[in-house]
Amino acid sequence: MYGTEDQGAGQDPMPADPVIRTDQQRCFDDRGQPASCRGTGQEGERRPGRPWPEPRFSAEGDTVVDRLTELVWMKDAGEEAFPMSWAEAGRFIASLNADAAASRTDWRLPSRCELFSLVSHERINPALPAGNPFDGVFPGYYWSATPCAAAPSQAWYVHMGGGRVFKGMKHGSYMVWPVAGPVYSPYRAGTTGERFSAGAETVLDRATGRMWAKVPGLQRGPVSWAGALSLAVELKKRRWAGYGDWRLPGVRELESLVDVERHSPALAGARFFRTPPEGCWTSTTSVYEPAYAWVVYFREGAVGVGFKAKAEFALWPVRTEKG
Question: Which of the ends of the chain has fewer CB neighbours closer than 10 A, N or C?
Answer without folding.
Answer: C
